[in-house]
Amino acid sequence: MNFKIIINEVFERVEALPQKGELATYIPQLAQVNSSKFGVHLSTIHGLNYGIGDYNDRFSIQSISKVLSLSLAYKLVGESIWQRLGVEPSGTAFNSLVQLEADKGIPRNPFINAGAIVVADILLSTLKNPRKDFLEFIHTMSPHSNVNYSKKVAESEKKIGFRNTALCNLIKSFGNIENKPNKVLDFYFDICSLETNCKELSDLFLFFANEGCTNIDQNRILTKSQTKRMNALMQTCGFYDESGEFAFKVGLPGKSGVGGGIVALHPGKYSIAVWSPKLNAKGNSYKGIKFLEEFTSKTEMSIF
Ligand code: GLU
Fold first, then answer.
1. Are 27 and 258 in contact (CB under 8 A)?
2. What was the pLDDT predicted at 216?
3. Whose alpha carbon is nearest atom 10 of ligand 1?
4. What residues form DSSP beta bridges with 275?
5. Domain at 94, CATH number
């Protein structure tokens, strides 16, 4: 399989497509991103690393961070975490409030905002220095990465975070938030503000393709069983209410964020990160999805 040739071909074709979609302007800081950016990076478990375009540029990973925060909470709390979070695709927008009332404050899954807010609460209750400990956990997945919080993005989101505030308060009213809502929200916004580039992102997610161990030093991050479950969740819930379509067209577990990043992986083979900031109507990177759809078609390598 010549990944490089396929990536180059698909990149060229998708780059030439008209720029459809919108930036995530509801977060003022994200409205300022250069919308023509486009980068891709692949990391295979056999040691191939290949990037093209703006793969070294840092961007706001937003909801992709929900996979990382859940990984740490799952590692710390174990299976009892599922008493506070569901594992069903929501079929609603990432910031929707509608199901929470009927579900009595148990978010449908950990990758919608409601679920990630509960995960932030769990981390606040469990860790001594939540911000520092979470970052350290990320660095165990990829010791040389420069992933870090962006104060600017977190502050910018905090100013307009009315829906997330509503979600947190509603969940609190059902008793599924232990800490003070403003503390939980501050941490949630910090988690969303993480920045990195496609190269580091595909490297970070490689352990999900490697049965829960880092590739270089075989450091175990999650158990095999936890890793399978995380991949199942990414497959069914990773793309908001476009998760079914992503499974149908791309066929890989993955996660997107409103910063225009997508990371996806093929268990036993590779992880791949794509960044193009303009989003389709469902909040997923327009070119990111186009790229991955063609990439898995050309490589004939989806998990199905
Ligand atoms: N920080 C964003 C929010 O809470 C994350 C959304 C996303 O990337 O899905 O709205």
1. yes
2. 83
3. 95
4. 39, 261
5. 3.40.710.10
- By residue range, what is the domain housing residue 143? 3-298
Contact 60, 195 (CB under 8 A): yes
The backbone torsions φ and ψ at residue 275, rounded to the nearest 5 degrees and listed phi first, read: -135, 120
pLDDT tens for 199-257 read: 999 999 999 999 999 988 899 999 999 999 999 999 999 999 999 999 999 999 999 99
Q: State the angle between helix axes of 65-77 and 130-141 in degrees (0 to 180), rounded to the nearest 10.
A: 100
Residue 50: φ, ψ to 5°: -145, 130
Would residue 304 count as lying in a domain? Answer: no
What share of the chain has pLDDT > 70, as a percent?
100
Q: What is this structure's pTM?
A: 0.97
The CA 250 to ligand 1 mean position distance, Å, reads 22
Which residues surround ligand 1 with Cβ inside 6 Å?
A: 62-63, 94-95, 113, 157, 164, 192, 257-258, 283
Query: In the prediction, which pLDDT does 93 show?
Result: 85
pLDDT of residue 46: 94
Q: How far is the CA of 299 from the centre of ligand 1 (A)?
A: 31
Pair 198, 51: CB distance under 8 Å: yes
